[in-house]
Design brief:
heterodimer; A: 424 residues; alpha+beta; 3 domains; 28% strand; B: Beta-Lactamase; two-stranded antiparallel ribbon; 2 helices
């Protein structure tokens, strides 16, 4: 017989059992909801198709303009309006875009000279044509111009691409100013011999260290390696002319420390120069002391002649007493030693060239090519990075696709980056 | 003999537990089943998008097969490409032929392009000023059906043309 007390006990046990069953059911439901929802009801990612189509459309537009040659022309002329207008025409109105081009020489290079007036004139002579007389020169298939202005540390240098200093003491005396320019994205150039103490002082700007070798004979360092600065400078070097003043009917220039004289003959529409009793017309090539030179331009009345050394294996002769050790950022190096007479830093925004006489035409050609290379263009219309006021008419993207490609316009390999996004 | 009081009886807690469990299973099942049409629709849309992408790419990159298909009758055409031989450069003769074929043999063109008989292809090739250069459209276009487009660009002679390929 079950006692009253034990009956209560059993009922209580049954109630507890029922309660536990409910708890079990609730737990099972929670687990089911949790696990099944995780596998079947997770939020699906937004479809990528629209972004694929965005990328395809932008890529097509660039490809077509590249293939029919329009883009190369716009980029060569830095015609932002036409580029913008054509790309807008070829893509849907709902697509916004920005474009940037890097790696091409600028059509106009602005140089500030932290110099005395005499030094500025000397720099202009070294960089002629295209400097003091504010005249363009032929740089490969395009026209270029170099403009020089004397600047002080308080000048407005907004437009300036590179600051040139020819007095090392002035350079060392304004190190903080120069560092500020580098921080602002400007380039600096020092043309000077350096003592051991100077090498130590300027180590951080130019990545300099001392060498013990001879620096008299120099050639491009590892110029076939695409990653080297010498590759680019040597490419620009063979396109950059130097200037020979022939207003008196003849003029001299210096290659490898040897002086040569040419006669320039005004012959109506077919002016020519004479060297070693041989006539050379514009565009022809003469060989002097083993170096090939192109007659790039004979000016009206044969008053000026532009020549350029077109041999990338050219050897440069210097008298520099400076002993700087070469590294991967060297432009020149002696063939069988470790001395460099022209080098940049690893950021390629500071260039040092050993002092040389201003009459040395091949070195002037090299210096000009190096400065043009340093001041390479970064052009385009980008609401974020470049010249915010210019053509920045699209709203900022939250999701975008970027197309990057290398392009070739028959002369320069440059990089194009295009960002595209949906405006709405 | 006296039977125990609890045999063949189900207490209320057990009933609630089972109901709760069944409710959970039912809710989840309905949710999953309810999502299936959407999955199917998205899958069908992705197939269409993928097809228009492939067709548009093939058209602007390839000459088709045989390469001189524009000179053949519909029976001899294996693949329709609009390129003149250089990628992105279209052939006017091929564009003309495509328009003509679509007028008379739209279903056959659809077959050659690999489209399912239930689906339709829409091709519009226009100059940047809007002038239609070629088109391939069904006789009747279902206005309400969702259409998936891809917009491409190519070159025709000295003009840049827009190649819009869609399907539904």
């Amino acid at each position: 017989m079950i006692s009253k007390k034990s009956g209560r006990k059993n009922r209580s046990a049954r109630n507890r059992k029922g309660f536990i069953q409910m708890i079990e059911a609730i737990l099972a439901s929670i687990i089911l909801f949790g696990s099944v929802s995780y596998f079947f009801m997770t939020t699906r990612d937004r479809s990528e198709w629209e972004l694929v189509s965005l990328r395809t459309e932008a890529s097509d537009a660039l490809t077509v303009l590249e293939k029919n040659g329009e883009l190369a022309t716009y980029i060569k002329n830095m015609d932002a309006n036409m580029t913008d207008s054509r790309l807008t025409e070829l893509m849907r109105k709902s697509i916004g875009f920005s474009l940037s081009v890097t790696g091409m020489p600028k059509p106009v290079v602005y140089i500030g000279c932290l110099c005395s007036p005499g030094e500025t004139d000397e720099l202009a002579e070294r960089l002629m044509p295209g400097s003091a007389i504010n005249e363009t020169f032929n740089f490969g298939i395009r026209k270029m111009d170099i403009r020089i202005e004397n600047v002080t540390t308080s000048s407005d240098v907004e437009l300036m691409d590179a600051l040139v200093v020819m007095d090392k003491n002035k350079f060392i005396g304004n190190l903080s100013y120069i560092q500020g320019l580098l921080d602002d994205g400007k380039k600096v150039v020092l043309i000077s011999d350096l003592s051991q103490a100077d090498i130590t002082t300027l180590q951080s700007i130019f990545d300099l260290s001392s060498s013990t070798g001879s620096c008299t004979d120099q050639s491009f360092y590892n110029r076939t390696n695409l990653d080297m600065i010498a590759y680019k400078v040597s490419k620009y070097f063979v396109r950059t002319p130097f200037f020979v003043n022939t207003t008196t009917g003849s003029g001299s220039f210096v290659i490898r420390k040897n002086s040569y004289t040419i006669q320039a003959v005004d012959n109506g529409t077919s002016d020519y120069i004479v060297y070693n009793s041989v006539k050379y017309f514009q565009g022809s090539i003469l060989t002097i002391d083993g170096s090939k030179l192109n007659v790039t331009r004979i000016s009206d009345n044969a008053a000026a002649v532009d020549l350029r050394v077109i041999d990338k294996n050219n050897t440069f002769k210097l008298d520099s007493a400076t002993k700087v050790k070469y590294d991967a950022s060297s432009i020149l190096k002696n063939p069988n030693g470790d001395c460099s007479a022209a080098k940049t830093n690893s950021n390629r925004n500071a260039l040092w060239i050993a002092a040389y006489p201003k009459t040395h035409s091949d070195m002037n050609q090299l210096m000009k090519a190096s400065i043009i290379s340093l001041a390479d263009v970064r052009w385009g219309f980008d609401p974020y990075d470049i010249d915010p006021g210019q053509l920045a008419k699209k709203t900022a993207p939250s999701v975008y696709r970027q197309i990057e490609r290398m392009s070739y316009n028959g002369e320069d390999v440059y990089s194009i980056a295009m960002k595209t996004w949906f405006i709405y | 003999m006296k039977r125990p009081r609890t045999k063949a009886q189900v207490n209320i807690e057990f009933i609630i537990s089972v109901l709760l469990f069944l409710f959970t299973v039912a809710t989840l099942s309905f949710n999953i089943i309810g999502d299936l049409p959407r999955y199917h629709q998205e899958s069908a849309a992705n197939i269409l998008r993928s097809q228009v992408g492939q067709i548009s790419s093939y058209m602007i990159i390839s000459t088709g097969y045989p390469a001189n298909w524009e000179t053949l009758s519909i029976g001899g055409i294996k693949a329709i490409g609009l390129s003149s031989g250089t990628e992105y450069y279209l052939s006017q003769a091929k564009l003309d032929k495509l328009s003509t074929l679509c007028e008379s043999n739209y279903e056959d063109v659809k077959n050659i392009l690999g489209m399912d008989y239930r689906m339709n292809i829409l091709i519009n090739i226009t100059k940047t000023d809007g002038t239609v250069v070629a088109s391939c459209l069904p006789k009747v276009i279902a206005a309400a059906a969702p259409k998936y487009w891809i917009h491409r660009t190519a070159i025709l002679g000295s003009d840049v043309v827009k190649v819009d390929v869609g399907a539904y």
